[in-house]
Design a protein that fits this description.
about 30% strand; 2 helices; alpha+beta
């Protein structure tokens, strides 16, 4: 799946793309050295807003 299709998939489900980030090292280690892996960040707003989130505390 290419990046455009993946972003469209998440956008259709209410997520907003918030940029890409490069991390190094093996998964779980994330050392400064090692292979570079790119990941995308997504954000989805909470339904009901901040007021409902506080009511759940």
């Amino acid at each position: 799946m290419n990046a455009d299709r993946l972003r469209a998939y998440y956008r259709e489900r209410g997520f907003a793309h918030r940029g890409d980030v490069a991390v190094t090292g093996a998964p779980g280690q994330r050392d400064k050295e090692g292979p570079i892996t790119w990941g995308s960040r997504y954000e989805r707003p909470l339904q009901g807003g901040q007021r409902d989130a506080k009511a759940m505390l």
